[in-house]
From TrEMBL:
This is Molybdopterin-dependent oxidoreductase. Keywords: Molybdenum, Oxidoreductase. One of its GO terms (molecular function) is electron transfer activity. Its cofactor is Mo-bis(molybdopterin guanine dinucleotide).
């Protein structure tokens, strides 16, 4: 599968959109302690590196002396050049530590919710662990479910350049003719790519857990859940089953219940559960579904 971003990677060096000199808001230069209102409407003035570093040092020193190190947030989270040497976040935090400390953060934007819950569920952070290899998936899976993901878009990029090695496996998956279930409120490029091979299910935004619960309830009531596995390898299933059946809150999480929340027809939820149970099914989930309030619930329930 060709990567459309390859042709633009080299252009980034000389693009007119690249900021090549330090730029400071005009109102900030006029009065650093009281910049003009109208954020986003100000003009920018080019300054020398010496002047830019002097401005940064003066304000950094002022804030630290007035409010202490906790008032300094060393963020700078984001993209960077290859390797750690040119990683802005590492360099900034090193400098701030040498200057007297700072307020930081834990986790990251990519999987902030999932990486907190997963150690309690599977014993490791999971999202950055070794995943099931593609050759095994292609050889052994009978059905592949893509939940809340658009890999034909996201697999084009890496930290510092284009990265398309995963795209070839999706091409092989398409050629295999295996059924693909794409669960996504948006009809993405990935769904279009698989075309007739894919069944698109579009739940209402943010209702993934309700859909998962409806599937789980169907599997349980039809006796298609693996009781031996659950008893031997998991803890807490009896309590979860009480919630699933509604014994603990008088609300069974049935396909009917899930249909009202998700907008996915009851019959389709039941059919999806039965398809998963009747075939060796690979569940793949994107990171996007956990980037919201209660986002950890999605990956927790998927497991």
């Amino acid at each position: 599968i060709p990567n459309s971003l390859q042709s633009t990677a080299a252009d980034q060096v000389h693009t007119t959109a690249r900021i090549q000199h330090p730029m400071v808001r005009k109102s900030y230069l006029d009065n650093p302690l009281q910049p003009a209102k109208g954020r986003g409407e100000d003009t920018y003035v080019q300054v020398s590196w010496e002047q830019a570093l002097k401005l940064i040092h003066e304000q950094h020193d002022r804030i630290r002396k007035a409010n202490g190190p906790s008032a300094i947030f060393a963020g700078s989270y984001g993209w960077r050049s290859s390797g750690v040497l040119h990683k802005a976040q590492t360099l900034l935090q090193r400098y701030m530590n040498l200057a007297g400390g700072y307020s930081g953060h834990s986790g990251d934007y990519s999987t902030g919710a999932a990486q907190v819950i997963m150690p309690h569920v599977v014993g490791s952070v999971e999202v950055y662990e070794q995943q099931t290899s593609w050759p095994l998936i292609l050889e052994n899976s009978q059905v592949v479910v893509l939940w809340g993901m658009n890999p034909l878009n996201t697999l084009k990029i890496a930290w510092s350049s284009t990265d398309e090695q995963g795209l070839e496996y999706f091409h092989q998956l398409k050629k295999s003719g295996k059924p693909v279930i794409a669960i996504d409120p948006i009809r993405s490029e990935t769904i279009e790519f698989f075309d007739d091979n894919a069944t698109w299910i579009a739940p209402n935004m943010g209702t993934d857990v309700a859909l998962m619960l409806g599937i789980a309830h169907t599997l349980m009531t039809q006796g298609k859940h693996d009781k031996v596995f659950l008893e031997k390898y998991t803890t807490g299933y009896p309590q979860f089953e009480e919630y699933l059946t509604g014994k603990s809150d008088n609300t069974p999480k049935s396909a009917v219940w899930a249909a009202e929340i998700t907008g996915v027809p009851e019959a389709q939820i039941v059919k999806l559960a039965e398809l998963m149970a009747a075939n060796r099914t690979m569940l793949m989930a994107g990171w996007g579904i956990q980037r919201q309030q209660y986002g950890e619930q999605k990956h927790w329930m998927l497991v």
